[in-house]
């Protein structure tokens, strides 16, 4: 059966043609370099423009030739009319003088004027293309020959002045007709030039369709060149964000494939290094936590006088051991958080998260620290949902809140607010501490950097908190900024405001 009798086969044909076209395009791109593709694109874009330029130049040359020819004809006809008038007038004058004076010398002068008239007629007739004008010149020549025969006739002596002047009337009439025809020919050539000019103008305007065709061709080649480069950029951004699992296999020009192969080799090496780092941190953290738990438990037993009372010096030593153990515990936790940054597998799986609940959970984790400084938490409890990774956001909020508690004064306030727009969601965490000098607003994100510790602070940091936050936000396509609290809230004369910005990808918020 033919495709006309088989609807399924008929519907499948356009799809097969489309796949064949894209297959041909892909095969073509894989066999050509960007340099050659650019050259081909330039050729295809320039070709219509060159053709239009050649067409315009030909039409302009044609118009110039017609204009030159017309100007020459106008000048020739103008000179013809002037010469004919002058020569005919001389011819008539010499004939009239001969009739009156009967002088043979005057007859010779007449013959000379007649010869000049014949030369003018023959020269003009040879150059003219107008048939009517040629016929009139022939008539003028015939009439001038008739008058010459009359002047050479023996009976010319019997002619009076009035009679000879009457014989010149037909010659003058033909000359007048010649002048009218010359004017008509000149006007006709002017109209012809005007019509040609209008036709050339219309043709040039019609050729303007070349512009959108050229732009379309340029757009196609721009897409062919930039699309593989855009895919390369996307792959590089994925590597920058720490996504090393997806294989890089791009099709396109030779240069793009070479870069893709280099990126694939780099991805494999980075992925292997990432796994090694993650494995090392996990193992070292586990190995440290096991003996640390025993040390911490033993320290607590001694501190609680479970094995007997301690004197003042022993109590002081026990306090030092206890604080150091807690600090070491915090360092191990920071290492585990930092491992989240290194482990790209923890960055997948977006989920719907209640922002208010996430903030409350972060505050509950730091409840003892908040209570120890008698801090007041002012949180925005409006229902708001964001699509992100809860584990990452928890680490981000915990580290920032830990810093805010650490630098807040006793009986101070910590304010947490959030707002949204079509593009992003902004979270502000504001404390009443000493603030951060603007010159250090970028340095605080460096690994292991620690600012001046607050007086009597019980919370010791590792210098990795804000580094972890910045790295995680980078992978979430977010950003973090440190600004003075007074720019956000007029009630805070001091303190710092940590502003977190995340892309707004949620779809069903209730805020």
From TrEMBL:
PROSITE patterns: HAMP, HIS_KIN
SUPFAM superfamilies: ATPase domain of HSP90 chaperone/DNA topoisomerase II/histidine kinase, HAMP domain-like, Homodimeric domain of signal transducing histidine kinase
Gene Ontology CC annotations of this record: membrane
Top-rank taxon, per record: Bacteria
Localization: Membrane
Enzyme Commission number(s) from the entry: 2.7.13.3
Entry annotated with the keyword Transmembrane: yes
Main location group: membrane
SMART domains: HAMP, HATPase_c, HisKA
Domain (HAMP) ranges: 223-275
Domain Histidine kinase per the UniProt entry, residue ranges: 283-506
InterPro entries (UniProt xref): HAMP_dom, HATPase_C_sf, HATPase_dom, His_kinase_dom, HisK_dim/P_dom, HisK_dim/P_sf, Sensor_HK_Regulatory, Sig_transdc_His_kin-like_C
Transmembrane domains' residue ranges: 39-57, 208-226
Gene3D superfamilies noted in UniProt: 1.10.287.130, 6.10.340.10, Histidine kinase-like ATPase, C-terminal domain (3.30.565.10)
Catalysed transformations (reactions): ATP + protein L-histidine = ADP + protein N-phospho-L-histidine
Keyword Disulfide bond: no
Keywords in alphabetical order: Kinase, Membrane, Phosphoprotein, Transferase, Transmembrane, Transmembrane helix, Two-component regulatory system
Pfam family, one: HAMP
GO MF annotations in UniProt: phosphorelay sensor kinase activity
PANTHER family: HISTIDINE KINASE 1, TWO-COMPONENT HISTIDINE KINASE
Protein name: histidine kinase
Organism: Colwellia psychrerythraea (strain 34H / ATCC BAA-681) (Vibrio psychroerythus)
């Amino acid at each position: 059966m033919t495709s006309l009798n088989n609807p399924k086969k008929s519907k499948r044909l356009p799809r097969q043609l489309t796949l064949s076209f894209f297959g041909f395009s892909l095969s073509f791109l894989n066999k050509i370099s960007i340099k050659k593709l650019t050259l081909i694109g330039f050729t295809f874009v320039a070709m219509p423009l060159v053709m239009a330029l050649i067409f315009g130049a030909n039409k302009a040359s044609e118009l110039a030739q017609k204009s030159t020819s017309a100007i020459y004809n106008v000048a020739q006809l103008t000179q013809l009319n002037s010469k004919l008038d002058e020569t005919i007038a001389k011819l008539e004058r010499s004939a009239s003088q001969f009739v009156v004076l009967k002088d043979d010398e005057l007859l010779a002068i007449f013959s000379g004027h007649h010869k000049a008239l014949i030369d003018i007629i023959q020269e003009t007739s040879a150059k003219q293309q107008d048939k009517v004008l040629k016929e009139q010149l022939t008539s003028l020549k015939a009439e001038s020959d008739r008058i010459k025969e009359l002047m050479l006739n023996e009976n010319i002596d019997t002619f009076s002045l009035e009679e000879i002047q009457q014989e010149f009337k037909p010659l003058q009439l033909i000359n007048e007709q010649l002048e009218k025809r010359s004017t008509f020919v000149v006007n006709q050539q002017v109209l012809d030039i005007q019509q040609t000019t209008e036709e050339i103008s219309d043709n040039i305007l019609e050729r303007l369709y070349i512009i959108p065709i050229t732009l379309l061709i340029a757009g196609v080649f721009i897409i062919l060149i930039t699309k593989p480069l855009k895919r390369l950029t996307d792959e590089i951004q994925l590597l920058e964000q720490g996504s090393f699992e997806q294989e890089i296999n791009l099709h396109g020009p030779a240069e793009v494939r070479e870069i893709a192969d280099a990126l694939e080799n780099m991805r494999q090496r980075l992925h292997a290094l990432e796994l090694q780092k993650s494995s090392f941190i996990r193992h070292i953290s586990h190995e440290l936590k096991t003996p640390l738990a025993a040390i911490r438990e033993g320290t607590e037993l001694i501190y609680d006088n479970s094995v007997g009372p301690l004197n003042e010096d022993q109590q002081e030593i026990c306090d030092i051991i206890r604080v150091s153990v807690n600090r070491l515990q915090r360092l191990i936790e920071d290492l585990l958080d930092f491992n989240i940054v290194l482990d790209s597998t923890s960055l997948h799986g977006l989920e719907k998260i209640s922002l208010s609940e996430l903030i409350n959970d972060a505050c509950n984790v730091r409840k003892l620290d908040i209570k120890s400084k008698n801090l007041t938490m002012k949180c925005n409890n409006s229902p708001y949902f964001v699509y992100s990774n809860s584990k990452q956001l928890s680490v981000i909020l915990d580290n920032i809140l830990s810093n805010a508690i650490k630098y807040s004064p006793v009986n101070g306030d910590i304010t947490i607010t959030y707002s949204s727009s079509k593009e992003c969601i902004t979270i502000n965490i504001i404390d009443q501490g000493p603030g951060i000098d603007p010159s250090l607003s970028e340095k605080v994100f460096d690994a292991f950097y620690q600012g001046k510790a607050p007086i009597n602070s019980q919370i010791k940091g590792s210098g990795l908190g804000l580094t972890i936050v910045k790295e995680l936000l980078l992978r979430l396509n977010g950003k973090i900024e440190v600004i003075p609290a007074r720019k956000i809230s007029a009630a805070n004369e001091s303190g710092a405001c940590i502003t977190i910005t995340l892309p707004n990808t949620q779809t069903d918020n209730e805020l």
